Amino acid sequence: MLTQLKLTKVLIILSVFNLFGNIHTEANTLSRQAAVTQQKSKVTGIVEDENGTVVGASIFIKDSSTGTITDSEGRFTLTDLKKGSTLVFSFVGLKTQEIIWKGESILNVKMVSDTQDLDEVIVVAYGTAKKSAFTGSATVISAEKLTQRSTTNVVQSLQGQVAGLQMTTGSGQPGGGSPSLIIRGIGSINADIDPLIIVDGMPYEGGWNNINPSDVESVSVLKDAATNAHNGPRGANSVIIITTKQAKVGEAKVTASAKWGVNTRGTIDYDYIKDPGEYYEAHYKALYNQLRYVKGLSENDAYTQANINMVGNTKENGGLTYNVFNYPENEYLIGKDGRLNPNAKLGRVVNGYTLSPDDWVYEAYSSAFRQEYNVNISGGTNKMQMYGSFGYLNDEGIVPNAGYERYSARFKGSYQAKSWLKFGANVNYTHSETSPLSEDYSTDMASVVEQVAPIYPVYIRDEHGNIMTDENGKLYDYGTTNTALGLARPVLPNSSIQSSILNRSETNANTFNGNGFVDITFLKDFKFTFNAGTTVREQRYFKTSNPFYGFGAEQNGTISVFHYRTTTLNLQQILNYNRSFGKHNVSAMLGHENYKYNYVQLSAEKKNMFSYWENHELNGAIIDAASSSSFFFFLLLPLPSYFHS
């Protein structure tokens, strides 16, 4: 009884302590809530600028989703604020401000104009214009954005950065090729739809790949009909204006950059049959259905005939010719259940050679290395500024004998000879060597490897399954009866990955582009500018078909040579008037332009080559082919004068 009494007292004491603990905890909670309530409050105020209240200004608490906008009288109210919070005030055309809230209940803010965007200068035809005064539609891409991507030419850098620009590249050629550009839709069905390209104020015909992106300061894309006012009919499909870098006053600066990368096949393949057994099963099913339900054969007859036709040599009957599975002679490759014979094993020996299927895509493509180096030097005084650059690019292809190599150099300078006289020059030279890809349906490797079924071998193997070789390296199967296997492939016969390895094609190009200008200032408000520019672009291309295998073997090798030269001359005479009256500005421009274009082309072909590896010229073959041509085109275009104010 005594023990029970003591226990009861202990329980009562513990219960009392627990009650006090709960009361204390609740008191602490209420105290913290009161403290938070005291720290949080609201603020009201008015947002103004130099013209009065600002309607629609954005106010939000930094690093949060809480915010509001000013009403029709420029007033705002923000609640749930903590002392020390940062308030962000922003509005289009006004500088964004950040203010730390110190607990005041009224906060009036005076915002100032952000003239940076309005004073930004964009390059337009025959000069520049302030963004605030430009009434057309234009997109300006800065050098910083252009160099963020590892691209070979400037156009590739515009992809995804210019609204209304549609870019189509029809080739995966290293070096980028020449993409097709459409800005704001197709302007004509029959006429040229490419935009006009202007580099440093002069029309450019030197090719995209010959402009080093490292030399570009900015790219302006003029996209509306207003471009016709200055550029005439040539600007009907919009205008892309490229401005190259120029030196600034100050000490000489030397900048060097290096980029490395890896090229890989980026194609996303759809889901297709890659297993040889599954391919035979699908092909058998198609033949069986045709024999059973179209020709009316019985189930057994259709089953037997479909197996025979499938591995037969008759293409019209659905013959695949190649049977890469080995199985007992008294059995068929496909069972009556439509499944592969469980006794079938890969590696059938025919005529002393092992038929073993290969992954054509894996054998054709590989990873390739890309490297780019650029060095530029710039500097000058108040009277003279000079800029020079040198660039090297080596872009290897992911298929055999594909690649692009470029050497580029640029010099740009200006000199203020007198207070009224300034002149300068901009010279660019580019040498490139391109190993282009074949785009012919029957020889384009990308087209071949993605059409060949997974039952056909790439290589010729001996009876032990080893890949055979000869003086040209590994032996490849061309799928014709006159090769080692003696089997005629029903799909793309006489085609092989080896054709891309042995056949040669190369383009050597030299491009020179030179511009010069003279500025003469007179009568205080007048400036006369004379611009002269020329482009000489020369390109020599050869293509060979090897005399050992494939299509070229029938003619003991062929060689085609193509050469063309483009020369342009552009002369501009521009008179500008510019006068400021207080807050007003009046400007006028009168200009005349003369454009001359000259194009010469020569091509020829010969066959029966006697020195395939050493001589890739026409004198390396004996017999003249039937195809040869020459072409000459001349255009002299005195463009009309332009007046603008």
Describe it for me?
The protein is of the alpha+beta class and 645 residues long. It has 4 domains: 40-116, Carboxypeptidase-like, regulatory domain (Immunoglobulin-like, Sandwich), CATH 2.60.40; 132-263, Ferric Hydroxamate Uptake Protein, Chain A, domain 1; 284-358 and 457-473, no CATH class; 368-438 and 475-644, Maltoporin, Chain A, CATH 2.40.170. The protein is built from 10 helices and 34 strands. It has a 10-stranded antiparallel sheet, with no helix packed on it. It has a 5-stranded mixed sheet with strand order 11-16-17-14-15. Strand 24 (384-396) and strand 25 (403-418) form a beta hairpin. Helix 6 crosses helix 7. Mean pLDDT is 82; it is low at 1-39.
What secondary-structure arrangement, pairings included, does this model have?
Blueprint: H1 2-39, E1 40-49, E2 52-53, E3 58-61, E4 67-69, E5 75-82, E6 86-91, E7 94-100, E8 109-110, H2 116-119, E9 121-124, E10 127-130, E11 138-142, H3 143-146, H4 154-158, E12 165-168, E13 180-183, E14 196-199, E15 202-203, E16 216-222, H5 228-231, E17 239-244, E18 250-263, H6 276-294, H7 299-310, E19 325-326, E20 345-346, E21 348-350, E22 353-355, H8 360-364, E23 368-380, E24 384-396, E25 403-418, E26 421-435, H9 445-449, E27 461-462, E28 469-470, E29 473-474, H10 497-502, E30 505-522, E31 526-545, E32 558-581, E33 584-609, E34 621-644
Parallel strand pairs: 1-8, 14-17
Antiparallel strand pairs: 1-2, 1-5, 3-4, 3-6, 6-7, 9-10, 11-16, 12-13, 14-15, 16-17, 18-23, 19-20, 21-22, 22-27, 23-24, 24-25, 25-26, 26-30, 28-29, 30-31, 31-32, 32-33, 33-34
Helix pairs in contact: 6-7
